[in-house]
Design brief:
elongated, single chain, 24% helix, alpha+beta, three-stranded antiparallel sheet, 107 residues
Length: 107
């Protein structure tokens, strides 16, 4: 553990971030549209090794548990690129839905 702290201190003293980038260097950014064949709309946003894939499907019938009479339902699924989703992914899905739902035109 001491080695990790010493290495972090060394990088910061040299003006580097922990991932070896300088303060003014940003990771590469990319955006692609229409990446999912079966979606009505889709997009992939990437920055460095992180990426977000979004698909829009609908209108369609939704399960009774998510049906709303006065507006459209918004479903969010957060999952890792590989492996199984954990409970943290389910919690993050709910947070993302709660943040995005008010700004999506659902009526």
């Amino acid at each position: 553990m001491d080695y990790v702290k010493e290495e972090a201190a060394r990088r910061l003293a040299a003006g580097l971030r922990l991932d070896e980038r300088t303060a003014g260097h940003i990771r590469g950014v990319g955006c692609e549209r229409s990446v999912l064949n079966r979606a009505d709309g889709s997009c992939r946003w990437s920055q460095g090794q992180s990426s977000v894939l979004v698909g829009v499907f609908g209108p369609m019938e939704c399960p009774r548990w998510s049906e709303r009479i006065d507006r459209a339902a918004v479903e969010v699924e957060v999952a890792p690129a590989s492996g199984l989703a954990a409970s943290a992914h389910v919690q993050l899905s709910a947070v993302v839905r709660d943040v995005l739902e008010p700004v999506i035109m659902t009526q």
